[in-house]
Amino acid sequence: MTQVAFHVGIDDRVAYCCRLVHKVLASGAQALILGDAAMLRRMDAGLWAQDAASFVPHAMVEAAAAIVARSPVLLAAQVPTELAQQAVLINMTDHLPDDPHPRERVIELVSADEQALQDARERWKSYKQRGFELVNHDVRQRSAGKAADSG
After folding, report:
1. CATH top-level class for 3-150?
2. pLDDT truncated to tens, each residue of the chain (151 aa)?
3. Where are the domains of the chain?
4. S-S: 108 plus which of 6, 13, 52, 138, CB 3.0-4.6 Å?
5. How far apart are alpha carbons 55 and 58 in whole angstroms?
């Protein structure tokens, strides 16, 4: 059964996603990151900006086939039908991904913006209707707890 994890209340989704991708790769999985063109450019820059010891090999899905085949992290505006059904799908869009593949994991990254939260609620309902296992990680609560602990 597909597990969909919502990470909610993220201030900097690019930085958060870069850290998350390291964890996904460390687990032995690949990642397919969905976003609009602007978000994908920021993700590309963010993944390049990691220190040399933690470089994340990645490619835009439109890159040459040989590059895409060797890249454990792919960036795309929509789910490619011919690629990586074993990859963890990380959704940074405001809509439900049109994904033809059964997946073990989908991760939804949601900012604290009210519209983004409303869009995420709608996606949650859609996933629930499809029978997926849903998990909620409220990043705001963790941040507030850390601030309270350090104060």
Report:
1. alpha beta
2. 889 999 999 999 999 999 999 999 999 999 999 999 999 999 999 998 766 666 788 999 999 999 998 999 999 999 887 765 668 999 999 999 988 777 889 999 999 999 999 999 999 999 999 999 999 999 976 654 444 343 4
3. 3-150
4. 6
5. 9
> Can you read off the two tokens belonging to residue 12?
């900097």
Full-model pTM = 0.88
Name residues whose C-beta falls within 8 Å of residue 139's C-beta, 6 or more positions apart in sequence: 7, 8, 9, 10, 16
CA distance 103 to 116: 24
